[in-house]
Amino acid sequence: KNQVEQSPQSLIILEGKNCTLQCNYTVSPFSNLRWYKQDTGRGPVSLTIMTFSENTKSNGRYTATLDADTKQSSLHITASQLSDSASYICVVSVTGFQKLVFGTGTRLLVSP
Amino acid sequence: DGGITQSPKYLFRKEGQNVTLSCEQNLNHDAMYWYRQDPGQGLRLIYYSQIVNDFQKGDIAEGYSVSREKKESFPLTVTSAQKNPTAFYLCASKAFFGQGTRLTVV
To answer: Which positions 74-93 of B are in contact with A (Cβ < 8 Å)?
Structure first.
């Protein structure tokens, strides 16, 4: 069964600190993996996308990594800001079906 | 301004009533999707359309209906057969999402 699991479920960090969110997947055949940021009551916004051959992708203070062998990805946030408070969703795309498998998200709260 | 526009942002439905959620895109994408988001759960696929005049059921299609008469538009109707419609509904084309419609049963 295609599944995406994220950890932790929620996280509180102090402003300015770094944090890392985890994503494990059992999706096959794999096409790509995206990390989304979703503010409360808003639609998800794509942060990064990685294909099978990519190990890392950065977008400002966000850096995603992908290990296709272990089927794990991480999203590292550097020097967190209050505006980083949101849910972060890992999404894996299944090859050939344009079907997306969603994780349940990590809810991040950045505290002043 | 390119993107996906959902309306309304908030919608209230009475018991036994059908309601329609609007989704419009100007990205010239063929594929469009409707998802439902509930607290503590990942997004679940309701319906998707890969081309005009064609659409397919997703994982939780019961109680919902869609149409795809134009490439730009993919409206979702929540029928009275959907027993638990209170949720946040998201429309997407490819990997781009609209801002969502929050539907509440009153």
So the answer is: 88, 90
